[in-house]
Write a structure and sequence with these properties.
By secondary structure, the chain is an alpha/beta fold. Helices cover 32% and strands 23% of the residues. The chain folds into two domains: 179 residues, 3-Layer(bba) Sandwich (Glucose Oxidase, domain 1); 48 residues, no CATH class. The longest helix has 23 residues.
């Protein structure tokens, strides 16, 4: 399992998914924002390495309550093997008619040091999951057990979640707007550029709130804009 460098993680904790999508778009990546996925409770950014679970449609002869006792059940095995610092990402095929997981498994992931849990399906026990410190994202609440619609088939394989390809080791960043998947090999450079872009956009926002026009300011086509930005940055210690 790849690990994040501490400084990269710190930078990604301070930038928005909106900024990250722009930085990734500049590198040719258009489909990296998970669609239809919402945070249960606002809070600080979620940053971690992707660890995945894939569901296929349930089959009645296999998906019975007794299957939970099997230590090779991919859902339970994945929860017990998910490493500290990871984000547990679930491919539920966008089907929220049954739960991807509930509060007990989410609490277990938190206890193991997991940084978050994301599904393009639904969760059950959502009030309890929302009360956890660990960030959680889903499409909508769904009380029925996963067995009614989902068969857990693979852990830590490439998956699709929210219409986005997620590979084990990719960097998952979530904020109060949504979740972005960053290819692991470009995480450091993306974090650096997103940090710089955030500082500049903070400057722009302050200028706009003071009455400045966006023309020449954003983007900075007026040559004086960068001079003013550098002076502002020095003044603010940014």
């Amino acid at each position: 399992m790849n690990e994040l460098v501490d400084i990269t993680e710190l930078k990604l904790m301070q930038v928005s998914t909106a900024t990250l999508t722009t930085v990734l778009f500049k590198r040719g990546l258009r489909n990296i924002f998970l669609q239809g996925v919402h945070r249960l409770r606002p809070g600080p950014n979620m940053v971690g390495v992707a660890y995945t679970l894939r569901y296929i449609p349930a089959r009645e002869d296999l998906d019975k309550l007794a299957s939970f006792a099997d230590r090779n059940n991919a859902q339970r095995k994945g929860v017990e093997e998910c490493p500290p610092g990871a984000v547990f990402v679930i491919d539920a095929r966008g089907d929220a008619s049954a739960a991807s997981a509930g509060c007990i498994l989410a609490a277990r992931l938190q206890a193991r040091g997991c940084r978050g849990i994301v599904t393009d399906g639904g969760f059950r026990d959502t009030p309890e999951i929302a009360s956890l410190e660990m960030p959680s994202y889903h499409a909508r609440p769904s009380a029925p057990t996963n067995l009614t619609k989902h068969h857990a088939v693979a852990i830590n394989d490439p998956i699709a979640c929210g219409g986005v390809s997620v590979f084990p080791g990719d960097i998952i960043v979530g904020d109060n707007e949504g979740v972005v998947c960053i290819p692991q090999h470009m995480a450091n450079e993306v974090a650096e550029e997103a940090t710089e872009m955030t500082v500049f956009e903070d400057f722009v926002m302050e200028m706009v709130k003071q009455g400045a026009s966006t023309f020449g300011l954003y983007p900075p086509t007026d040559p004086s804009t960068m001079d003013r930005f550098n002076a502002w940055r020095q003044e603010k210690g940014r």
